[in-house]
Amino acid sequence: RNAPRGIAAAWVNFNGTGTVAIRDSENVGSITDVGTGDYTVNLTAAMTGANFVALASSQQTSSTTAFVTWAPRISGLATTSFKVSGVPENSTGGGSYDVLELRCAAFGDLA
């Protein structure tokens, strides 16, 4: 099935701290916690190829970092998954951080 143009083929809102848990989703079967601030979003239905668009937004890790702007990084696009990392916007290689809330969406054709 293909999502109509402009409609996400998959999306998820999940907790990225402690025990990773999906709050709500469409076409996302699970989230794998790969390490501190690094997650894999596992799709239920595969995309036709790895050239789809994935976007993410996030919320800070705690009240002590409330004024840090977060710019999650997307990588590792595959037909059944993609990776997202919690990274402060001004990070210059300082690593990933667990993020309180991550929201991801994927746009493209489903297989």
For the record, give the distance between the C-alpha atoms at the N and C termini, rounded to a whole number: 7 Å
Q: Helix coverage percent of residues?
A: under 10%
Number of helices: 0
- Please give the largest β-sheet: 4 strands, antiparallel
Shape: globular
Strand content: over 45%
Order of helices and strands: EEEEEEEE
* Strand arrangement, major sheet: 2-1-8-5
Rounded mean pLDDT is 86
Radius of gyration: 14 Å
User: Ranges with pLDDT <50 over ≥5 residues?
Assistant: none
The total strand number stands at 8
Strand pairing plus helix content: what structural class?
mainly beta
Features:
111 residues, mainly beta, four-stranded antiparallel beta sheet, 46% strand, globular
What does this structure look like?
With 111 residues, the protein is mostly beta strands. It is 0% helix and 46% strand. It contains no helices and eight strands. It has strands at residues 10-15, 21-26, 28-35, 38-43, 53-59, 73-78, 81-85, 101-107. The strands form two sheets. Strands 2-1-8-5 form a four-stranded antiparallel beta sheet, with no helix packed on it. Strand 1 (10-15) and strand 2 form a beta hairpin. The mean pLDDT is 86.
